[in-house]
Description:
The structure holds 5 protein chains of 5 kinds.
Chain B: H1 3-29, H2 37-54, H3 59-81, H4 86-106, E1 116-117, H5 125-143, H6 146-156, H7 158-163, H8 168-194, E2 196-197, H9 204-217, H10 222-238, H11 246-260, H12 273-291
Antiparallel strand pairs in B: 1-2
Chain C: E1 2-11, E2 14-24, E3 29-34, H1 40-47, E4 55-60, E5 63-64, H2 69-75, E6 77-80, H3 92-99, H4 106-119, H5 121-125, H6 136-149, E7 154-158, H7 166-181, E8 185-189, H8 193-199, E9 202-207, E10 210-216, H9 217-220, H10 224-230, H11 240-243
Parallel strand pairs in C: 3-8, 3-9, 6-7, 7-8
Antiparallel strand pairs in C: 1-2, 1-4, 4-5, 9-10
Chain E: H1 2-32, H2 39-55, H3 61-89, H4 94-115, E1 132-134, E2 137-139, H5 141-163, H6 165-175, H7 177-182, H8 187-213, H9 223-233, H10 238-259, H11 264-278
Antiparallel strand pairs in E: 1-2
Helix pairs in contact in E: 1-5, 1-8, 1-9, 1-10, 2-3, 2-4, 2-8, 3-4, 3-8, 5-6, 6-8, 9-10, 10-11
The complex binds adenosine-5'-triphosphate (ATP) (2 copies) and magnesium ion (2 copies).
Amino acid sequence: MLELKNVTKTFGGLTAVEKVDFIVRKDSISGLIGPNGAGKTTIFNLITGIYKVTGGEIIFKGIPIQNLEPHRIAGMGITRTFQNIRLFKKLSVYDNILTACHRNAGYNLMESVLRLGRYKKEERNLRQDTEDLMEIMGLSKWRDHTAHSLPYGLQRRLEIARALAVKPELLLLDEPAAGMNPDETLQLMNLIREIRDRFKCTIFIIEHHMDLVMGICENIMVLNFGRKLIEGPPEMVQRDPQVIEAYLGEGAKLGA
Amino acid sequence: MDWFYIKGILILSGINLMAVLGLSLLTGFTGLFSFGHAGFMAIGAYTAATMGIKLGLPLIPSLLIGGLISGVISLFIGKLTLNLKGDYFCIATLGFGEAIRLILDNVQYFGGARGWPGIPLKIDLWNVAIINVVGILILINLINSRHGRNMIAVREEELAAKTIGIDTFKHKMISLFISAVYAGIAGGMVGYYTGFLQPKMFSMNKSTELTIIVIFGGIGSISGSVLGTLLLTALPEILRAFALWRLVAYGAAVIFIMISRPEGLMGGKEITLKGFIRLLNIRKRSGKAAEG
Amino acid sequence: MLKVENLHVYYGGIHALKGIDISVEKGEIVTIIGANGAGKSTLLNTISGLVRSREGRIIFKGSLLRPVPHHIVMKGICQVPEGRLVFANLTVKDNLLLGAYLRKDKKGIKKDLEKVYELFPRLAERQKQLAGTLSGGEQQMLAMGRGLMSDPELMLLDEPSLGLAPILVDTIFAVIQDIKKIGKTILLVEQNAYKALSTADRAYVLEQGKIVKAGKAADLIEDPTIQESYLGQKAEAGDRKSEVGF
Amino acid sequence: GQKQEAAKEEQKTQEAPKEEAKQETAGDVVKVGWIGSLTGDQAVWGQCEFNTVKMLVEEINAQGGLLGKKLEAVGYDTRGDAMEAVNAVRRLTSQDKVVTIIGPNASGQAIPISTVLEEMKVPDIATVATNPKVTVVDGKTKPFNFRVCFIDPYQGAVAAGYAADVLKFKKAAVLYDVADDYSQGLTEFFIKTFTEKGGEIVAKEAFKSGDTDFRPQLSKIKTANPDIIFMPYFFKEVALSANQARELGINAVLMGGDGWPSEVLLEMAKDAVNGSYFVNHVDFDDPAVQDFKNRYMKKYDRKVELNGYLAHDAFLMFVDAVKRANSFDPVAIRDALETTKIQGITGNIKIGKDTHNPEGKEAAIIKIVDGKYVFQQKYAPSN
Amino acid sequence: MIQFLQQMINGLSIGSVYALMAVGYSLVYSIMNFSNFAHGGIIMLGAYFGFFFLTLFNWPFAVAFLGAAICAAALAVLVERVAYKPLRMRNAPFLYFIISAMGASMFIENFVIATIGPTFKTYPAVFSREPFRLGPLFIGRLDTMMFVISAICLAALIYFIDFTKMGKAIQATAFNPRASALMGINTDLIVITVFAIGGFLAGIAGVLFGMKYTVYPQIGFITIKSFIAAVFGGLGSLPGAVIGSVILGILETLISGYFSSQFRDLISFSLLIIILVFRPIGLMGKSTEEKA
Ligand SMILES: Nc1ncnc2c1ncn2[C@@H]1O[C@H](COP(=O)(O)OP(=O)(O)OP(=O)(O)O)[C@@H](O)[C@H]1O
Ligand SMILES: Nc1ncnc2c1ncn2[C@@H]1O[C@H](COP(=O)(O)OP(=O)(O)OP(=O)(O)O)[C@@H](O)[C@H]1O
Ligand SMILES: [Mg+2]
Ligand SMILES: [Mg+2]
């Protein structure tokens, strides 16, 4: 579904991502791990068009997308959450999601200004969609709270809900479990599985919580210094000595 | 207070309000700060007056054409400048506003800096009120549609807006266009109200005055803009008697509101019928509670 | 050394802390665990003066703390805030030097700088880079390093392992042990409750703005309710979880 | 002194509503309106005008009033803004019920107020609004607008005529303020007359209100090597540009209009403007104006600006019209104003019925010699 | 050729006038991230202080100069305390600061009109007006002085900001006051310092302008140009402010010298916009590209 071909990104003299090849298969949950500063977030930024690639191609459903505007890429069905949460801080939970639902309505400017029939019908649907999403994501209770006053964990959840409102085919999650305790992480893990099944979307995760990554990812790419270290199923990645040395550390080795 | 005088203030408020509403969309809802809106007013004013005098069009079509031309020009400006951030955009719009004024100063066809008298007087309280009501309704509808929400998203967090598929540039453009149309219509009304146009009327002071009103009323609130306009247009009139001290008091009032209610008068909230009823209910309930 | 008495904090109408009492003794590592939104960050922010309390007292080394952040830093309390808050517009090195803003001993500063670079070699590599362009984990290292540079008596750490690669999580906790060894006191807030409890001497459990449990860290780690709600272990599905990654 | 004045102002306005109520019943106080800039960048002139009007009102009251009634001056600030001027006039005519309005000092405000005047049927005598369109638009005379000053075309023609015919200059340069109506007006008519008289305009350069540096333009003018530079704008800019011209080694004679006369000009650019000419409404040394000059100085402890003289004469016109109409009815005053024929301190004022301008009012040509304003002659352009 | 050289000299001296204002202005911007529109007002007050010290108290020039700068610094701090601090305490967005600044600027200007009066005051002749002559070229004395003073101020400021601990603390506070407080930085003191320096520079500029242009309540109006220059050079960058000023000065001069003085601002604004289109952060602005 998504293919990175020889993707490279440099910042001035610094090469953040170097010749990375990777394929995300449809309906899979894939993982991206690697030490801090390995270039993981940068890869997400490249996929979503926030950064322009220095070299290589990114192909989504057969179409090269590396030079498209971010909103175009989102329009094609790729959306994401951010490592540093970027909600519409001053809006309520409800409005955050409702705003993101915009793509599911087609009425134009004239129709909205004059409140024509299509506006009313579609707007009703949007609002229903929003309610449904809040329900699924367990946010109904927080409906009227402004986003910035939510606790950290809920903000992350809201970010996912907002991304889902776009009805993505590919969902990129950048450290969704950061700041959650193990119990919450476990819940999140189930939630992600549920999302995959329910929304029929492919998921690509960056995460440092190994429980989560190893627990739900079918295929994992390990990045180190911008280069791909290895790629494979969790069991294999977990035991790889290079990965242990560069990323997991001795503690994990003992445990394994 | 004499009705004739009050009427004058109301008409002036109405004219200001139209421009403020447009700017409210741009600044309040889309988060773009313009110092050049007087320029759009000027374009609308001179176009509308031309339509009326040279082509003999009636008021409303003249105003609409004035607004439209102003909007079309805003598209060119927007194309060039909307990618700029914060103060850079400000400066670009400031430059635009001053440039428009300078052009008008030099165009002798419209009387240059000496002004253009003899524009027919067609504005009265009624047509100002109707134009404003329509303007407000359109704006409310817009804000409560996906387009309006997208603009707010651009204001709140542009990057996130992009990643949920909002064409931020396009929405900034729409917002600028509409606000320029509103400003253009307001400008047209200035001409038809005073019967006289002069580039001086559309100086940077006018632009900053509009911005002050928008922020004063509260960002992201239409009722705030309405309230702000009424108050800030009436305030100098109320203070008129203070002569020399009038603008000192005005400046102090602006600072006072900003520091005591930093989110402006309304601050993102709207006066709605529902809210009003809720307020009444709370009163009733607390009244009952007090009884009980 | 630090004593918090009957602390109440409000955000507008939200009652975030509802009468907190805790104490930290010199040379101890004390940890506070709790779910999202329990009020852990609020507690640390109140101690460091960023948030004002409505009621209650905070006593440090026998004297009442004035709620002014730079005074509190001067007294020897330093917070490493949640979400890093590095100075994005300054270089890595400048960030670290700002950590030592109130220190006068040039030599000591230089020595500590070397020490931080030793702990986090990645920072040494990126000395000249603007902090804003560092990766998330790199920023976390920087925030930690910056805290160390102020050479405090009491360090308040708010989720220092957030967003760090497992290998670095180990490093961070090792660093925390090191800091303790040189006689510093630490108040640690962590989501990674297992690691936190393994490192700490004592612990408090915060739930919805109230302390619901307190005790020796070693005891709490064995406590089944704690295990269930904070260590991610359903009683049956026992040990597997804690083995991997943490 | 000013503070107290302002305080007095405040007091007065607090009492105003009460007074108004009294007037309705007793009717022994008649109000005269004034508008102009008390704040903003035109405040210098506005304040002087209003002071003059207040002083004259006091003097009349001290002498027992007019037609047996006491006068009261009500003045409002316009910030130099057209819309504000409209509102101020609305308030003066409806709420304060003034019988006549004096001011404003700028055409940009004088033109738009006429609709209100006509609606409320109250006459206005503008002080230094020099645009012809203040009183006549498209050949139609505005019934309620009058003025005491001469108009731009006239002043421009006087300057050009004097330069060409009397001073015999052939090559003129013009530096003007492109954003100012007054400056554009004078420029237009200066150029017109000067070229008609066979002179040549060798350079026409512009600046914009608010500018403080004119050297780029002056450097360009210098290369055109004119005999005379026409500077139709206000004294601050005149002083700056004159100084800068001399700094650049320009020796041409400078000439200007009624924006020039001021103490500041001489203080700032005494040497630079030495030998320059300007067109004025009055000869400052004319015995006729000395009395007023002294009274103003005595009362306000500062020198009267040029606007004061014109406000003075506007007030004279008003008093004269009331006396002749023998009534305070605004329409009657208007009718009387149309046939005004008095001797003011700024000259003979004979209002033209079709123009509402003072007809044939001669201009005074003044030369600056060693830091003094030296009257040359009364001059009217011949053609 | 001589004409061209003379025009370059003219441009440079206009540029140094802009630079003198732009530096103080840009300093406050770089810390507070908002355009301090009250800066013009402080410049004006500085000019008045200098004037009164020289004429009423008959102080020697150097003392009056320093005294004016110190008083201006104190006033700038006062403005900060009254109009900005309450906003700072609430982390209000930059828009509110700008509006408060506009209020303050209106207040200051009209306060002076109401108390001191609107009339122009002329500085006593401290220096000879006789320009230096370089063959056929003329160079103003005061201009040379301004040029040298702006250069010195700039150098001192850059040293202070980039090479001292306090400077770093200022930058840190600019970025995140909360985090800076945790470093033990007294953020309030930092802000006061910044405003005091900004005010001091404004005082210096004020006295120099007063000598050059007389003193009057609207003298601060020229700051608009320096604001534009600062944006042009890249906001927040002190060298950028100076380079922007000089370029703007020379640009204006060349346009009025060789194209058209009527349309000078039109052309220079258009160029400004075009440059911003290609360099959206000004000539030397720091890239504010966020990392997602
Ligand atoms: N805009 C930028 N300018 C310069 N360098 C950058 C920029 N963005 C990222 N980098 C650098 O690129 C490298 C990769 O950063 P990235 O954010 O992709 O790391 P990451 O793998 O997501 O790490 P983490 O797990 O800590 O979030 C880092 O060294 C970072 O400093
Ligand atoms: N600035 C604020 N305004 C309003 N409410 C706030 C604010 N900051 C925190 N809160 C609320 O206070 C409560 C405690 O928040 P706090 O950040 O202290 O929790 P926490 O325990 O640190 O959570 P996390 O593990 O997510 O960091 C939460 O309900 C939160 O929504
Ligand atoms: Mg990352
Ligand atoms: Mg927290």
